[in-house]
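Final report, Chapter 2: Outcomes

The project's central promise was a pipeline that accepts a single protein chain and returns its three-dimensional structure in a standardized token representation, suitable for archiving and comparison. That pipeline is now operational. To close this chapter, we reproduce one record exactly as it appears in the project archive, with the input sequence first and the structure output second.
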Amino acid sequence: MSNTLGERCRLTIFGQSHAPAIGGVIEGLPAGIAPDMAFISDFMARRAPGGALSTARKETDAAEIVAGLNEWGRTCGAPLAFIIRNSDQHSRDYSNLRDTPRPGHADYTAAVKYGGENDIRGGGQFSGRLTAPLCFAGALAMQLLKERGIAVKARVKSVAGIEDGPMDLAKPDLDAIIDGRLPCVDAEAARHMAEAIEAARAEGDSVGGVVECFALGLPAGLGEPMFDGVENRLARALFGIPAVRGVEFGLGFEAANLRGSQHNDAFYMEENRVATAANRHGGVLGGITSGMPVVVRAAFKPTPSIAKPQQSVSLSRRTDAELTIHGRHDPCVVPRAVPVVEAAVAWALYDMVL
């Protein structure tokens, strides 16, 4: 099913942007787990709308577990079900989009696939709002991975072509990532990114960027060759995030410009374990973890909902039409995407660790 992620531990996400609630059902969690709701709440707050660099929509993103816990607040073997209520929808902002689809959105393709019955309000099931349940599950996975000595953390690598400072792919210092709406290692770069986002907003436009995620503490030997490798599983999770247009590992596409002698990672012994000095391979060889940090990046397109007039069509009249989009939208999804990327990576890795 397209809304389900995972094999041993399965997350199924449901809801639409302007439905009464969104949520998820998790099957396969071991019994006896006590979800750290304070950690989960703080994690989800990083993704929640609001703030100087995002949409003005206000949602608390308070998750409510409705099934799957026993009287002691621990998982009991039954599916864990949770909901997140929607409270601040402006559905009238989308009244003209059923006939005139937004460029860059799934309005047209969904109308074709579902015969015009798709929920257009806020993007329906294609909205970034559906990443809130993913963040609940991802935060829970991060709690469980931490117990196994595995840490997952992401940063904003770039926005509008403005690059954050470098990080050592072999020994990344996750504590160097400055917490905030634009988690970076270079505060000056973060300031310039924020200025670029504000400039785009002022012009009725938007910008995109790249989120880089690190997973530390994974043992060597995790994953399978061919179609079930670590890259395959992580890419599937990351491409489920709206606006992701590309995924790469290690040096990624940069490797195509190098020679083998430049890209190969020489092995060496480090305190009785096999390691590499540079980690250009991003912690995965042949679909299997090498024991080095897993490094993955997700490229996000500019938010397609912009205030500038755009060229579209009238589906009823079968003519060209000009469209002006109203409503509240992120001028850049990258700041709020950082915890979403962490959540997707954490969930996929936890499922593989099981």
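Archive annotation: DSSP finds seven helices and 16 strands in the chain.
This record, like all others produced under the grant, will remain available to the consortium after the project formally closes.
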